[in-house]
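P.,

For your records, the input lines for the assembly:
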Amino acid sequence: MTTYILRRLLLSIPVLIGILFATFALSRLIPGDPCRAMLGEKATDAVCNEFISRHGLDKPILVQFGVYVNEIAHGDFGRSFRFSKPVTDLLMERLPITVELAVSALLVSILVGVPLGVISAVRHNSWVDVLTMLWANIGVSMPVFWLGLMLAYVFALALKDTPFQLPPSGRLSPGIITVPFYEVWGMSLGQGGFFYNLADFVGRMNILNSVLSANWETLGDALKHLILPAVALGTIPMALIARMARSAMLEVLGQDYIRTARAKGLTRNVVIMKHAFRNALLPLVTVIGLSLGGLLGGAVLTETVFNLSGVGRILYDAITARDYGIVQAFTVVIAVFFVVLNLIVDISYAYLDPRIRLN
Amino acid sequence: MSADTPKIAKLDAEGLSLKSVSLWQITWRRLFKRKSAVLGMVILGIMVFVALTAQWIAPYPPTLSMLDAKPPQNLDKRSSPCIHLFGCPADQPQHILGTDGNIRDEFSRLLFGSRLSLMVGLATVSFAIAIGTVLGALSGYFGGWVDNLIMRIMDVLLAFPSLLLAIAIVTVLGPGLINALLAIGIVSIPSYARVVRASVLSVREMDYVSATRALGGNTNQILFHRILPNALTPLIVQGTLGIATAILDAAALSFLGLGAQPPTPEWGSMLGAERNQVFTAPHLVFYPGLAIMLTVLSFNLLGDGLRDALDPRLAHVS
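Structure tokens returned:
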């Protein structure tokens, strides 16, 4: 297993270099002069000259690439001219919101998609099956932003003043406050440092934070705000997962050992859960891994629709304001994030299926 | 043979009849036996019909703003649908789906939007297939460092979530429909390159390829006449499903303001322009989204149907 993980880690190095090179190339392809593209149209000549010599923009292209990689390795993504603070700080502020959204969407999609798929395989060709597959086909064809807007319309306007009313935007209602858990616990972490950053990151995820600080009112409100975006973002992966769970289960249920298990007189539930479902897990992990990329892309759209100030939303704002520094930094970070996620998926494969790690 | 055809010829079972049945005839026949694929073809057929005849069936030009409509007809922005058949007063002009923020007929814009969506899907996928096929074929046929180089580049492209990479590319190229098409095309190259490479690898060592080589066939002949035709079926399936994704991504880019620019009647940008009016004029958000969904759905259903119909392992289910 260790050798497998090591080999897989080594294999992702060329991809990482490629990602860095691609984003570097994109940043150099921006029309016009790179200084004004990064610092805004109003940058003076003096500022630009300083910028150019600091980032080595007057040096050969390979040296420039070296400088760029070095800066990123030190966590330096430059400054955003619109927010006039380091892009790294912005990332640390916004990433928790996107992570919270993506994780809840993934949870929604797995918790609904897997049971739906399993049930429709077990009751093959029943009305449950037909309806699930119809829904799955519609689900993969739905534009995320449209679904989000429609959900907002239904739950915020059509169901207004019913118990099902849900807020269409933002993360918390006015008046509801959230205090970072480390302050509630009376911890003094100081500024900077790894533990401070970690605690700060967790503290920005409202749900985790309110659980940690036992603030149930905030938790309820945060959950209410998260339901619609999570459902909107989770629908496509949910449909993919349901489809895959169904076909994987159908294939496994036709195997001889299932018949043997039934013939032994095992109960239906034991056969389905222990004998069949476990063997259907592998293709499911694949599909979940594949849908993570879509989740990150969909987050841009979902955050725009629901006014959540996560990574996706800031990326959208940065695009419209031509704040290339942010676009470039966020693209790198999300791509690296995605590579790491894929790595985890591959390793969990090898864990689930010994044949892979031995090959 | 025509007069006294043996009885067996009348059996329509595949492979048994004396009259040869081509792969495409079989596929076609199987496709029609799947309800979902038929549904997909029906929706797609309607879309194509609408796209071809939009200029005749649309009641208004798609970019005509009715700002200067004369009094009894003066219209508000974002007026709700008015259909005479369903009790809308006859003295008001009929707008089946209402009007948008610039007092344009939403229905006409929606009809014209089908052209763009289909065009976007076909153009990006053709672009991606053309480049992906060449790259995949080179990679699979020559192997070695060519293969390594090409496939590592494809890995890097695949390492970005597709929509984000498309966003990054459009940001550099500048917003606009053509640039959005280019970005989505580039992003979808890897999946076609992989499909073609896999087929080439599986066919490269076949006897008939060796035979062609022994007969003096050149690389061109081997690659384009012996190997690539075998990659056609997976490409068709992948391409049909790819059109669905391309349409969705293009609509998303337009929604974000990076694709088609106003006043182009493109569904994604129509929806994006009115997204803040979802509570006051929901029809302006609902119908363009529904149109996107139906178009994407039709390609998804057709692609799934084609995959099953072209699968030789399912040959017995004719």
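Two observations worth noting. The mean pLDDT of chain A is 84. The CA atoms of residues 24 and 65 of chain A lie 7 Å apart.

Regards
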